[in-house]
Amino acid sequence: MWKTTKKSTLPQLLRLTDPGVREQLQALPTSQVLIGHGTDAQPVRIDLDKDSPHVLVCSASGGGTSTVLRTLTAQFLHHGGDVLVLDTKRISQSWARDLPGVTYCRDIADIHDALLGLRTELTRHVDENGETVDLPHLAVVFESAGHTLRQLARHWDKVRQASEPKASPAVNAYEELLYAGREARIHILVGAQS
C-alpha cells in the first residue's frame, strides 16, 4: 500500500504496522480493498461490488505492480475469498502457492484451462434469475497480462484442431470475465507493464 504526502513527491510505503492501518483493514467490508492513504492521510479504497469489479495495476518493470497485487490478494484471502493466481513469470506471486483458498497456475496450458474453467464458474455464481449466489468473492490475479494474453494466443495456435475457431477460447473467456465478473463476484486484478 502507498501513502502520498505531497503532489510533487513519490508515495511513501505504508506498512501494516503503521498506526491505524491494521484497524482500517479490519473495518473494511469484504467487498472493499485498501489501496493506501491519500495526501489528507485518509484511506483510499475500492469497493469491488459498487465502484469497479476489477483493478488494473500498471507500472514500469520493477515499479511495484506485483507488490500491489500481492497486497490486494492478501486482503481477499483475509476476508475469506478464494484466489486464482495466473503467473507466467512463475515468481511474481509465488508467496501464495501453497496457501489455503489459492489455486496457483504458472504454465500456459494450465492458465488456458483455468480461464475456461472460470467461464463455467460464471454460471455457478449466478442463478437462473440472474441473481448472485452467495459464494465467496473470487479474485483472479492476472500477472503480466499483456505477455500472458500473447502466450495464450500462441498456445491456442499450437493445440487447436482445424475444425476449432482461430480465436483463443481462453482469451475469449478472459474478455467475458471482464464483462460479467461483477454479477458473479469474480474480480480480476490485472498487472501490466507500461
Explain what the structure shows.
The mean pLDDT is 86. This protein is α/β, with parallel strands linked by helices and 194 residues long. The chain starts with a strand and ends with a strand. The chain has helices spanning 21-27, 65-78, 108-125, 145-159, 169-184, and strands spanning 2-3, 12-13, 32-37, 43-47, 55-59, 82-86, 102-105, 138-142, 186-193. The chain has a 5-stranded parallel β-sheet with strand order 5-9-8-6-7, with helices on both faces. A hairpin with a 5-residue loop joins β3 (32-37) and β4 (43-47). It folds into 2 domains: 1-47, no CATH class; 53-193, Rossmann fold (3-Layer(aba) Sandwich).
Please describe the structure with a list of short key phrases separated by commas or semicolons.
single chain, 194 residues, alpha/beta, Rossmann fold, 2 domains, 5-stranded parallel sheet, 4-stranded mixed sheet, 5 helices, 22% strand
